[in-house]
């Protein structure tokens, strides 16, 4: 399978988006880490107070090496825990640090909770509840069924 972006990052990096999401997977995260444009875009999102979201390998592989969130609490893929400073690591499925507007999640099994939290942050808990109720699944970490 081949996935193609709707537009290259160079064409959209300066856009007025509310959130940037870094998906996981070690190979993809390594490409992100090595992309000056991507790293600068993430830093700009952070500096401008917009949400940065990263899942799986992305927190340890992209955010930490570039010291983008030196005080942000985060989680990530459990086998990469040693790459995240102990004082920042949270052993939770999804971590939202409102101080720095950083959302992180552990991996594929937490992706739905991660997505629901993004919906919650962008359009509200009620919409996240509405979406969760259509997924026919057990309540996640944020318990959108309540």
Features:
146 residues; Rossmann fold; 6 helices; 12% strand
* Spatial extent as radius of gyration: 15 Å
How many domain units? Answer: 1
Give average pLDDT, whole number.
Answer: 93
**In the CATH hierarchy, what is the architecture at level 2?**
3-Layer(aba) Sandwich
* Assembly form of the protein: single chain
Largest sheet: 4 strands, mixed
CATH superfamily: Class I glutamine amidotransferase (GATase) domain
Structural class: alpha/beta
State the CATH topology.
Rossmann fold
- Uncertain regions: pLDDT < 50 for 5+ in a row? none
Q: How helical, in percent, are the residues?
A: 25-40%
Q: Span between N and C termini? A: 38 Å
Q: What is the N-to-C order of secondary-structure elements (H for helix, E for strand)?
A: HEHHEHEEHH
How many beta-strand segments?
Answer: 4
Cross-sheet strand order for the largest sheet: 1-2-4-3
Per CATH, the class reads: Alpha Beta
Describe this structure in words.
The protein has 146 residues and is of the alpha/beta class. The chain has a single domain, classed as 3-Layer(aba) Sandwich (Rossmann fold). 36% of the residues lie in helices and 12% in strands. The protein is built from six helices and four strands. A four-stranded mixed sheet has the order 1-2-4-3. A hairpin with a 4-residue loop joins β3 (94-97) and β4 (102-105). The mean pLDDT is 93. Residues 1-120 form the DJ-1/PfpI domain. It holds the Pfam family DJ-1_PfpI. This is Chaperone protein YajL.
């Amino acid at each position: 399978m081949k996935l193609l972006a709707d537009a290259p990052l160079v064409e959209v990096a300066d856009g007025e988006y509310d959130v940037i999401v870094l998906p996981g997977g070690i190979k993809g995260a390594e490409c992100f880490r090595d992309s000056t444009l991507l790293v600068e875009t993430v830093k700009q999102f952070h500096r401008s107070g917009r949400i940065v979201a990263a899942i799986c390998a992305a927190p340890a592989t992209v955010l930490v090496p570039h010291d983008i969130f030196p005080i942000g609490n985060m989680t990530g893929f459990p086998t990469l825990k040693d790459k995240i400073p102990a004082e920042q690591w949270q052993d939770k499925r999804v971590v939202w640090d409102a101080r720095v507007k950083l959302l992180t999640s552990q991996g594929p099994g937490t992706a739905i909770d991660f997505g629901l939290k993004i919906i919650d942050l962008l359009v509200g808990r009620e919409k996240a509840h509405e979406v969760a109720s259509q997924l026919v699944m057990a309540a996640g970490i944020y318990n959108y069924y309540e």
